[in-house]
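User
Take a look at the entry that follows and flag anything odd:
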Amino acid sequence: MKSLKFYGAVGGGIALLGCWPLAVGQIAHTAFDDLVTSIDNSNVSIELIDYQRGYLSSEATTKVVVEAELAKQQLQDLGLPTEFLLTHDIVHGLISVTSDSTIQNWDSDALVIESKTLLNGATDIHLAYSNAFSVMLEDSAVLTIPSWQVKGSVEPNQTIQYEIASPSIRVQDDFGAELEFADIEVTADGVFDNQLWLGNQKFTIGSVTFNEPESGFNAQVSGINYDFSTSFDDETNTYGTAYKLDVEQLKNIDIEANNIVVAMNAGGFDSNAVNRLAELSSGNALTDQQTAEMFDTLVLLLANGLSLEQEQLSFELGGGSVSSTWQLNWPEQASSTDIYEMLIAVDGGFSAYVTKPLVESFPMLEQVIDELMIMEIMTDDGQGYQLQGVIKDGNVMFENGQQIPLLMLAMAVLSNA
């Protein structure tokens, strides 16, 4: 009896082992469907055209179509297709499924598309293109990318992680003018929710150079880092966002600025209004009715309250430095429909500091500071000049007690800009 049970168990194990590739194939098919569904959105649609499941391997064909009108037009202007077919050779492993894919009618030797899907549905993807890629832009300018690669993963909870890298992107025209981005890398971790990205993104660029031989003008920006994040607050049903830009140096023949930092955040954006704005702006040209609806939605966004903050703006220039911060907060004004009243209901504060070496390097700036000192709006601490104030009841109030209507100040700033 024991022998019978033993051989029965062994036979059952062998039968299970024999059926396992078929089970993995079924899991792979399901995971493939889920992956296609998770990527399909208003910008890009993916359709599973065919899936031939085998014992140890399968074959599939998918159709990818760029749906966003702006992206489609840009691709068409570059002479690139807006839809194409992917052929997938799928192998059923013990705990995962691997796939090698090729784009039909594409340079398959230079293009590598690999993916690996675990049995829980988690998928890793690697794309790489090793040949130089060039397209003709307007005015006979040529854009060239020597190579690029994309690494990404999709988790069962639809969280997406990806990394895009390229050694350079160069644009050159017939007159020899050249713009080049070097050492480019983009990383991200998040999810798509109602056409909006929730999560973190980071862009790094080693340098950006521009040369124009005809005029002799050249400029370079180096050490660029841009961090961007968006989040959703379940309790208030609002979105928030934050970004920070760091630049080591900006330099041309006339000027050199170092350690440039811009950091801002915003919060309290009503999710219903934001999602509707995303829907309206993702399609074709707006009709008159949609334009009116977009304005009403913007009013609703402001009526529900929001906040903006510049946490830091600083840079070094002319032997000195500048730094500033400001905050603006709009309270909830659901009962109001007057856009002017809603705008001036803001409160907040601001602060700016300019060191004397920088002011002395720019006579025009020095003249403005002198006028503000005479008005007692700015103060001198011996090392530099300080400007501080608060915003309340539609007025900008400085430390010395002077007040300026916010609308008048905003119009003056815009006219000068």
